[in-house]
Specification:
single chain; 288 residues; alpha/beta; Aminopeptidase; six-stranded mixed β-sheet; two-stranded antiparallel ribbon; 10 helices; 8 strands; binds zinc ion
Length: 288
């Protein structure tokens, strides 16, 4: 049994998060910490999310690589993010176990595994951004773009222009690509990348170096974006936006705000998005 605490009469959505498959990408741990801190907090948004969504989080997929101080590989020299298709319990034990769990959860009729997000850090790009999958079905492509768009409204350091969707052959063994093919077409799989060094926001004239705190803030913004998503999709009934907005005290930081259940196009957001689009076009190399 994967989730015995799930009462049969109340179906919950499932969100699966992994981080640190690449051991040198330590910013991913701070982002993941921000997600966890928010979800276990007394923040009203977190309380609502816990009522409707089950979050499964594996904060460190490559602990032996982290222990050894490796940049990309495990103890045995494998880049685990190229072995999702056929992980060995002997050579890739953490990956094997997590894959088994995800497959088991995806087949359980009592819950619906809707999101898989794998957190990485990027060595050449600015800001936070996502990679997603490419599908033939245009409607699915559009649905896949919803979460990054909502996140862009909540996180001033998240860049939609850096966000892209691909199906490169070389990425076939990544978690995002493999699970995108495994899970049904109502599921969404993303790689969440965050810059190793800086981000640009509206109004800034120079890149702002990331800190542990701003990495964790991105994680908190990722977590609360799930409420926006599930309000849009009617899993969570909106009791009035003021309830959520007025509660943005504990974790509120400059530039972020709760946007209720609509895709907001306020001036600040538009301006911010345009500014990011103009400023973060560095050489794009995907390392995920
Ligand atoms: Zn990576």
């Amino acid at each position: 049994m994967v989730y015995d605490h799930l009462s049969p009469e109340k179906e919950k959505k499932l969100v699966f998060l992994t981080a640190r498959v690449h051991p040198g990408e330590s910013p991913a741990s701070f982002v993941c910490q921000g997600v966890i801190d928010f979800l276990v907090s007394q923040h009203p948004v977190a309380q609502i999310l816990r009522d409707h969504v089950i979050f499964k989080i594996v904060p460190m997929l490559n602990p032996d690589g982290v222990y050894l101080g490796n940049y990309r590989c495990s103890l045995m020299g494998f880049d685990l993010n190229r072995h999702w298709q056929d992980p060995s319990p002997w050579a890739h034990p953490t990956l094997h176990a997590v894959k088994q769990l995800i497959v088991q959860m995806s087949q359980d009729p009592r819950g619906s595994l809707e999101f898989y997000i794998d957190v990485h850090a990027h060595s050449t790009m600015l800001n936070g951004f996502m990679y997603g999958n490419v599908f033939e079905n245009e409607e699915r492509v559009q649905r896949q773009a919803v979460f990054p768009r909502l996140l862009c409204q909540n996180a001033p350091d998240f860049s939609l222009s850096n966000t892209s969707f691909n199906r490169d052959v070389v990425k076939a063994g990544t978690g995002r690509r493999f699970l995108g093919g495994l899970l049904d077409d109502t599921s969404y799989c993303y790689t969440l990348e965050v810059s190793f060094y800086s981000y640009m926001t509206a109004g800034s004239t120079a890149p702002v170096p990331y800190t542990e705190e701003t990495y964790m803030k991105l994680g908190r913004n990722v977590a609360r974006t799930f409420l926006d998503y599930y309000k849009l999709n009617y899993l969570v009934k909106c009791k009035g936006p003021t309830h959520i907005q007025s509660s943005e005290v504990t974790f509120r930081t400059s530039g972020s705000s709760a946007k209720g259940n609509s895709i907001v196009t306020d001036t600040d957001t538009e301006e911010r998005s345009q500014n990011i689009r103009q400023t973060d076009r560095l050489t794009q190399t995907e390392h995920a």
